[in-house]
């Protein structure tokens, strides 16, 4: 299709040109068009090719050192050394490559999960499809919070406003229409009847026909200019990278010292060169970055299984630090399964029986069944509830065998009203002819109400309004009493407010219903048409808490995480539910949006610690709450679903969007998406986040202790004028092979039992906090010393058998590591605090590493390569004893300390 000036064509022409109707195209036709026009995607620019990913593995500084070493070894005629080092580098490169490909794949699959969708009509049916599958001619429904998925000519608009700054730079939302625009050369910003890909619906709704997709869109024309580089590196990864660089310098410095002293002591230059390379290799934890990436990727996969989709990798770390969760109420803490239970009209309370979406139930007045259609006021209340409604109630079969069930499409609040109407035999179908809709003023969380304009058979237009009772009441000048509008007196107002509160106190979520006659339909296009209304009555629905929420909240409490409810609902309802689910402790404060408005930021900051429930707030308040909490040093997780929630989601340390009910805009701003909208999932994600961080800490500790040990062995041996206790190839082997497997297994270690009984970690804490740094030094030191001791013992008893002494030292180092790995599983506890068999991968990894060591020692062709000799039983007893010392001596001391502490009378607490 060549460039058409869609904006200057009329709607029928646009439909004709795109060969479609308001019922959309067929699935078959869509398939053909997809072949013709391609996927609705912007080309993503350069993709990292597998080859460059592979080559990247060899750009590491350490690898360069090794290459240089290889070259020199080769030049000096030490070919086995050279070949082996190259082999190890290549193996390491392949491993790193495979790991990175895997990590990349799992991150790509994350992107898929979070991919945008579009609501379209095909074959006359409304469906939701991935936005990438849109084709020209598709009829798209747009709603506030959607990202426009393609270039679209609008064919219907209801208060539709679109923010187009990504395309035009204009940050104010543009009101849209459907009228053709005469000037064919109008600029993009002036094409009021178009919605362009990538722009954002900030208000209202609309329907349009897709006229361009993918690279044919206006956005496609400038796609090269936009780079959406997401953060894919976590702060920890960055810090480890820095640490790696520091270690390189340390290694170089030590190496220089050792080499110079060695040469002055009369050692040969090649020998000293080898020693220098060994030291450099010993100091740098080659495997670390790759293992961090794997641990993160695997952790992210586990989170997906628990229904939490991570959009920004760094948040995996931040999650473990969360100290406050601010959660929406409706749908997150509650089930979003509304059932109207009570209503109030003409001064009387009615109870409605029945459960869920099953439209069976009675209307009762003081326990007696009544016929709602015989009572005019009640009937009108129900009619408005059904007319002022965009939901759909249908009977559907979930599976082939199952009984058909009633399901609601659209807003559950409105679904509940349809069910209520159906219980009285009042349905949208029965009203469609009698009172057709002319227009709609959509709901949004700021207005807290929604209206439709209808015309009845007598030709009278009426504005039918439903919304939050307190908000509605302020806009009512009259009230319907005994079928007549009576001027709203202050005592009437009070009566409504009282009825509202008494229903809310029972945890009911209330809606008010009102109307007003409209003489001229154009009236409702004015700025604020919902005024001078006639109040009719109240509807109260229960929305039961999600069953798992209570436990999740008490888990949070134990984990030192505060849960805060932020809701658009009424204060009394919010408070009742907060009490039910255990959010509101005795003495905890509940405040509402109006009170929040009177508070300065400073006041809020002072009191935010005591507030547990924010009721009747607008999305804009959320940002203030996030900031106030952050100023108090909190790490804040904040949920949201609408457009206006996006700023708060962005500002929070962990922005969370709803997977089911969330808008595109909220999802894009978020770091985490809950695919089941469930509060408990947030807690699960935090638990995983803590576990992942702990695991990273475990293997960082494990690997670094190994490196400390290796450096010390080499360094002291040099200083003492001994020969090299470990050969470079052996150190390389330890670092890349025998340490790698157990380290990866630590990366998938199950979390410690008390993981959710500790306070959140401080965001600023380094990975070496809580004694981890000290443990690395002490364990490393002991590993180094026992290795050196074994070497020295063997070498001094038989100086002619250097190879044997080196093999013993090599084995001691490896075995000490393989024992130490079990100590690393607990941050505070140590080797005895956890069941060894809990992590079968670790057992497997340790056994494999031990077998590999055996292979290097006992398989004859390996012996000249790794410069080893076979060891006998006695040798092994020496090796294993020495290897056990670092871990067990410290564990024994700690156990002893604990016993002493227990028997000693304690003075504190
Ligand atoms: N579809 C609707 N039409 C009219 N009024 C509505 C509709 N949905 C909700 N309301 C009213 O607006 C109020 C605020 O709704 P909003 O969606 O902002 O918050 P909420 O869903 O009650 O709670 P939360 O913020 O926890 O999700 C509701 O308490 C209700 O009285
Ligand atoms: Ca809501």
Automatic annotation (TrEMBL):
Signal sequence coordinates: none
Subcellular location: Endomembrane system
Protein's membrane topology: Multi-pass membrane protein
Keywords: ATP-binding, Calcium, Calcium transport, Ion transport, Magnesium, Membrane, Nucleotide-binding, Phosphoprotein, Translocase, Transmembrane, Transmembrane helix, Transport
InterPro entries named in the record: ATPase_P-typ_cation-transptr_C, ATPase_P-typ_cation-transptr_N, ATPase_P-typ_cyto_dom_N, ATPase_P-typ_P_site, ATPase_P-typ_TM_dom_sf, ATPase_P-typ_transduc_dom_A_sf, ATPase_P-type_domA, Cation_transp_ATPase_P-type
Chief location bin: membrane
Enzyme class: translocase
EC number(s) from the headed UniProt entry: 7.2.2.10
Occurrences of domain Cation-transporting P-type ATPase N-terminal (ranges): 5-78
Annotated segments matching region Disordered: 168-187
Transmembrane segments: 58-76, 82-101, 246-266, 272-298, 772-795, 840-859, 871-892
Protein name as annotated: P-type Ca(2+) transporter
């Amino acid at each position: 299709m060549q460039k058409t000036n869609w904006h200057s064509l009329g709607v029928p022409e646009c439909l004709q040109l795109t060969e479609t109707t308001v019922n959309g195209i067929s699935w078959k036709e869509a398939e053909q068009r997809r072949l013709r026009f391609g996927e609705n995607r912007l080309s993503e620019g350069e993709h990292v090719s597998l080859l460059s990913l592979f080559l990247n593995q060899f750009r590491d500084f350490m690898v360069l050192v090794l290459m240089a070493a290889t070259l020199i070894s080769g030049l000096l005629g030490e070919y086995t050394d050279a070949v082996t080092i190259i082999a190890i580098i290549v193996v390491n490169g392949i491993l790193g490559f495979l790991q990175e490909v895997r990590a990349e794949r799992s991150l790509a699959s994350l992107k898929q999960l979070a991919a945008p969708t579009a609501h379209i009509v095909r074959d006359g049916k409304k469906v939701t499809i991935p936005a990438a599958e849109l084709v020209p001619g598709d009829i798209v429904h747009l709603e506030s919070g959607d990202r426009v998925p393609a270039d679209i000519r609008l064919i219907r608009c209801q208060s539709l406003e679109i923010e187009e700054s990504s395309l035009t730079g204009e940050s104010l939302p543009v009101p849209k229409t459907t009228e053709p625009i005469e000037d064919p050369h109008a600029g993009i910003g002036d094409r009021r009847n178009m919605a362009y890909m990538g722009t954002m619906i900030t208000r209202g709704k609309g329907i349009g026909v897709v006229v361009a997709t993918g690279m044919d869109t206006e956005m496609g024309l400038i796609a090269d200019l936009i780079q959406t580089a997401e953060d894919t590196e976590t702060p920890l990864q960055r810090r480890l990278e820095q640490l790696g660089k520091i270690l390189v310098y340390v290694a170089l410095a030590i190496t220089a010292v050792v080499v110079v002293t060695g040469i002055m002591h009369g050692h040969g230059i090649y020998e000293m060169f080898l020693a220098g390379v060994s030291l450099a290799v010993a100091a740098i934890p080659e495997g670390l970055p790759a293992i961090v990436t794997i641990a993160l990727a695997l952790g992210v996969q586990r989170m997906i299984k628990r229904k939490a989709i991570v959009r920004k990798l760094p948040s995996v770390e931040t999650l473990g630090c969360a100290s406050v969760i601010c959660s929406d109420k409706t749908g997150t803490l509650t089930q979003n399964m509304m059932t109207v239970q009570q209503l109030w009209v003409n001064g009387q309370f009615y109870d409605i029986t029945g459960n869920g979406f099953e439209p069976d139930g009675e209307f009762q007045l003081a326990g007696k069944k009544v016929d709602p259609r015989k009572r005019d006021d009640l009937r009108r209340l129900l009619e408005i509830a059904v007319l002022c409604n965009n939901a759909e109630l249908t009977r559907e079969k979930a599976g082939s065998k199952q009984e058909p069930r009633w399901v609601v499409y659209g807003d559950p609040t409105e679904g509940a009203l349809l069910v209520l109407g159906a219980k009285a035999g009042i349905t949208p179908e029965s009203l469609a002819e009698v009172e057709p809709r002319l227009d709609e003023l959509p709901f949004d969380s700021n207005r807290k109400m929604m209206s439709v304009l209808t015309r009845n058979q007598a030709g009278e237009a009426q504005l039918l309004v439903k919304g939050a009772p307190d908000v509605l009441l302020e806009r009512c000048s009259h009230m319907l009493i005994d079928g007549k509008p009576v001027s709203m007196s202050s005592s009437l107002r009070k009566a409504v407010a009282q009825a509202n509160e008494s229903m809310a106190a029972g945890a009911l979520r209330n809606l008010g219903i009102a109307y007003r006659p409209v003489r001229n339909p154009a009236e409702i296009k004015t700025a604020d048409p919902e005024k001078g209304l006639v109040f009719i009555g109240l509807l109260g629905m229960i929305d039961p808490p999600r069953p798992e929420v209570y436990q999740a909240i008490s888990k949070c409490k134990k984990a030192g995480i505060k849960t805060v409810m932020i809701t658009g609902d009424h204060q009394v309802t919010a408070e009742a539910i907060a009490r039910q689910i255990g959010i509101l402790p005795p003495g905890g404060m509940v405040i509402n949006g109006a009170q929040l408005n009177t508070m300065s930021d400073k006041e809020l900051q002072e009191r935010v610690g005591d507030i547990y429930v924010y009721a009747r707030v607008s999305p804009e308040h959320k940002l203030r709450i996030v900031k106030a909490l952050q100023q108090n040093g909190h790490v804040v997780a904040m949920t949201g679903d609408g457009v206006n929630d996006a700023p708060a989601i962005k500002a929070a340390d962990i922005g969370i969007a709803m997977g089911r009910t969330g808008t595109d805009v909220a999802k894009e701003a978020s770091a985490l998406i809950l695919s089941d909208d469930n509060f408990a999932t947030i807690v699960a994600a935090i638990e995983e986040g803590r576990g992942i961080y702990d695991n990273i800490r475990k293997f960082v500790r494990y690997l670094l202790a190994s490196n400390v040990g290796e450096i010390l062995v080499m360094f002291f041996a040099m200083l003492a004028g001994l020969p090299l206790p470990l050969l470079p190839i052996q150190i390389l082997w330890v670092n890349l092979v025998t340490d790698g497997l157990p380290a990866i297994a630590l990366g998938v270690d199950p979390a410690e039992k008390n993981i959710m009984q500790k306070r959140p970690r401080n965001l600023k804490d380094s990975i070496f906090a809580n004694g981890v740094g000290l443990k690395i030094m002490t364990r490393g030191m002991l590993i180094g010393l026992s290795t050196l001791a074994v070497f020295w013992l063997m070498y001094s008893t038989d100086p002619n058998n250097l190879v044997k002494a080196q093999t013993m030292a090599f084995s001691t180092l490896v075995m000490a590591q393989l024992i130490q790995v079990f100590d690393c599983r607990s941050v505070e506890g140590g080797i005895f605090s956890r069941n060894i068999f809990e992590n079968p991968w670790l057992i497997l990894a340790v056994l494999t590493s031990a077998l590999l060591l055996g292979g290097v020692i006992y398989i004859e062709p390996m012996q000249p390569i790794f410069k080893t000799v076979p060891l006998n039983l006695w040798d092994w007893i020496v090796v294993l004893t020495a290897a056990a010392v670092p871990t067990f001596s410290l564990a024994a001391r700690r156990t002893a300390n604990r016993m002493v502490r227990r028997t000693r009378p304690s003075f504190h607490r």
